User: Fold DUF1573 domain-containing protein from Desulforamulus reducens.
Amino acid sequence: MKDLLCDQFQNTVSEMTLCHRSILEILSKLQESGVRVQRSVVHSVTSCGCQKITANKKSLPENATFLDLKNLLDSHLSGNLCNNCRDNIESEIGRSLFYMAALCNLMELNLYDIFIKEHKQLEILREYNLT
Ligand SMILES: [Zn+2]
Assistant:
């Protein structure tokens, strides 16, 4: 059984990209959208200031287990997204999903099948504590 929302999204993207079906255009737009996601995150730190990045080298014990690493390593990110930055980042991620779905359409791939396949891979890795 396919996920209706995911398939509907992919179908809507297909209808919206009728005039822009070149693989070259979709690939460049997909890359550009990824950069815009990163830029919107950076903007929340450097322009808005609702988030802060603090990074430094971590000394890790030689005998650290994967569970230890989960506790020792962090995201280097602190603060809370304000509503404006949250909206911006969500919009950019949405745009990136649009071009990801457009690429799937051109390649005759089903986005939901890819989610399921990736999820199964993650579950296998989780069993071995490798994520
Ligand atoms: Zn903000």
